Amino acid sequence: MQELSHWIDGKAVNGASGRFADVFNPATGEVQARVPLAAAAEVTAAVASAAAAQPAWGATNPQRRARVLMEFVRLLNRDMNKLAEVLSSEHGKTLPDARGDIQRGLEVIEFCIGAPHLLKGEYTDNAGPGIDIYSMRQPLGVVAAIMPFNFPAMMPLWHVGPALACGNAVVLKPSERDPSVPLMLAELLVEAGLPAGVFQVVNGDKEAVDTLLDSEIIQGVSFVGSTAIAQYIYSRATASGKRAQCFGGAKNHLIVMPDADMDQAADALVGSGFGAAGERCMAVSVAVPVGNDTADRLIEKLVPRIEKLKVGPYTAGEDVDFGPVVTREAKERILGLIQSGVDQGAKLVVDNRDFRLQGYEDGFFVGPHLFDHVTPEMDIYRTEIFGPVLSTVRAGSYEEALKLAMDHEYGNGTAIFTRDGDTARDFANRINIGMVGVNVPIPVPLAYHTFGGWKKSVFGDLNQHGPDSFRFYTRTKTVTARWPSGLKEGGEFHFKAMD
Ligand code: NAD
C-alpha cells in the first residue's frame, strides 16, 4: 500500500502522528493509498519553517518570482498526462475532465506571470510642497489554503499561484480524499526553482485545519468547500484577526425561456448537470423551464440525452461521460436524497437507482437521474446534492423563475437560455448571484476575471483569481515622503539588470 507524505522544506516528509486516512480509487472502491493526518505539532513546525522562508521570497523581485511560475507552467504542461492520470485515479473524473482541471488551474498561473504589472503601486508626485505619496502592495506573510476534493489541481493552483506571485509563503491543506496531485505540484514547484519552505503541503483533517486557523503566524486563510465548513472557517479565522475568503456550496439554476433553442438548452443541461458526476460547484442542478409547454418540450429533449450517457471508470478512455462519485458515503448520501425526492412527491423521470456497472460493482458509481415537478420545499431542491441529479422546477413566468433563483440561499452561478436580449439583460442585472451565463451553462470566468458567488456561497469580500486575488494576498502600505534636499550623485553609465 502506498503511503503518502507531507511536503515540508522542499521535500517529502512522512507523517509522525500515527493517524492516517484511506485514499480510494472510486472506480473500484479499493483503498489505493493512505495519507497521513498531521498532528498539531507537525502543522506548527511546517508553519514556522514557512515563516522562516517567506522574507527572502517576499524580498525577491516580482519578475524573478514570476519566472519561477513561468517555468512551473512549462512543467505542468510537460506532466499534464501524468498528473491527470493520478487525479482521475483518486477523484474518479474522466481523463479529459482531469486535464481540464489542471488546465484551468494552469491558466491562473499564466495570469500570475503578470505579477510585476499587477503589483505596481500608486504614486502622487508633489502631493504637497516637496511631498510625494506612494502606495505599495506587500505580501501578507504566511497564508493557508484549505482546499476541497472536487478540483484537486485547479483549486490549489487558483490560490497558490497568486499567493506566491505576491511574495507570500503558502501552507496548503489539500482534501484528504485526493492529496496526491497537490504533492506532485509541490515537487514541480521545487523543480521550477521555488526555494524550499515557501510552499508547504500539510495533509490532515480538522486537527490540522484548526491549528492553521489558530496560528499566530498565519495572516490569511483561503478556504473552498462546503458552506457549513466555510462559515466555520471564516468565523474562526477572522476571530483571530486573519484575513479570510471562504467559498462554499451551490445550487445553480438554469432558466429556459420559451424562445430558447431547446436542443442547445438540453445539451447544456446534460453537460453541466452530469459532467464530473455533478461534483462541481458550478454544476447546474436545477432546470427552470418557463411555462408548461417549455417544460414538456425540454423534458422530451432531455430524457433521450440522459439515457444515452455513458458512466464508467476513467480507464475506459475518452468514451465515458462521467465517472464515479468520490466516496461510498457520497454515493449513499446522493441515493438517500434521490429517495427523499420520490417520497416527497417529485416525479423521477430518469430513474437509475439500481445502476450497477459490470466489473465495477464495488465502485462508487451513481447513474444519472432526472426529476420533474420538483417544488421549493423539497430536500432535493434545498440541498446541494453534488451528484448526477438534475431537478426540474416548472415556473409559470419569467418573474417566477427569477424569484426562485433569487430566493435560494446559494448564489454561486446561474444561467438563462433565451434568444431575447432584453430578457437576458434584465436577468443579468437583477439576479443576486455572482456568476451569470447567457446561453452559457457553466459561466466560469477566465483567469483574468474573478470567480466568486454571492449569498451563502461565500464568506469574505474578495473573489478567487484575477485582480481580486492580488488584492487578497497583499496589504497596501502608503508612504508620505518629504525630502528637504537630495544627494546629487554622478552618472551611472552601465545598462544594469535589476538584481
Ligand atoms: P468539505 O467542506 O467537506 O472539505 C473542504 C476542506 O475542509 C477539506 O480540506 C477538509 O479536510 C476540510 N474540512 C472538512 N471538515 C472540516 C471541519 N469540520 N473542520 C475543519 N476542516 C474541515 O468540502 P468537499 O466535500 O471537499 O468539497 C465539496 C464542496 O466544495 C461543495 O460544497 C462544493 O460546492 C464546494 N466548492 C465550492 C467552490 C466555490 O468556489 N464556491 C469550488 C469548489 C467546490
The CATH architecture designation of the largest domain is 3-Layer(aba) Sandwich
Q: If strands are numbered along the chain, what order do they take across the biggest sheet? A: 15-16-17-14-13-19-20
Assess the beta-strand content as a share of residues.
15-25%
- Whole-number mean pLDDT: 97
For the report, how would you describe the main beta sheet? 7 strands, mixed
Question: Strand tally, please?
Answer: 23
Contiguous helical run count: 16
* Assigned CATH class of the largest domain: Alpha Beta
Number of separate domains: 2
CATH topology descriptor of the largest domain = Aldehyde Dehydrogenase, Chain A, domain 1
| Low-confidence spans | none
Q: Helical content, roughly?
A: 25-40%
Radius of gyration: 24 Å
Ligand set: nicotinamide-adenine-dinucleotide
Morphology: globular
CATH superfamily of the largest domain: Aldehyde Dehydrogenase, Chain A, domain 1
How far do the termini sit from each other?
Answer: 47 Å
Structural class: alpha/beta
How does this model look, in words?
The protein has helices at residues 40-59, 62-78, 80-91, 95-112, 115-118, 154-165, 180-191, 206-214, 227-239, 262-274, 292-307, 328-343, 379-382, 398-407, 421-430, 466-472; strands at residues 2-3, 6-8, 11-13, 20-25, 30-36, 122-128, 131-139, 142-146, 169-173, 199-201, 218-224, 243-247, 252-256, 284-289, 347-350, 369-372, 389-392, 410-411, 413-417, 435-438, 454-455, 458-459, 474-482. With 499 residues, it is an alpha/beta fold. It has two domains: 2-248 and 457-479, Aldehyde Dehydrogenase, Chain A, domain 1 (3-Layer(aba) Sandwich), CATH 3.40.605.10; 252-438, Aldehyde Dehydrogenase, Chain A, domain 2 (3-Layer(aba) Sandwich). It has a seven-stranded mixed sheet with strand order 15-16-17-14-13-19-20, with helices on both faces. It has a six-stranded mixed sheet with strand order 10-9-8-11-12-22, sandwiched between helices. Helix 6 (154-165) links the parallel strand 8 (142-146) and strand 9. Helix 10 packs across helix 11 (292-307). It is globular. 53% of the residues are buried. The structure holds nicotinamide-adenine-dinucleotide (NAD). Nicotinamide-adenine-dinucleotide binds at residues 146-151, 155, 173, 175-176, 205-206, 209, 224-226, 229, 247-250, 281, 384, 386, 412, 453, 457.
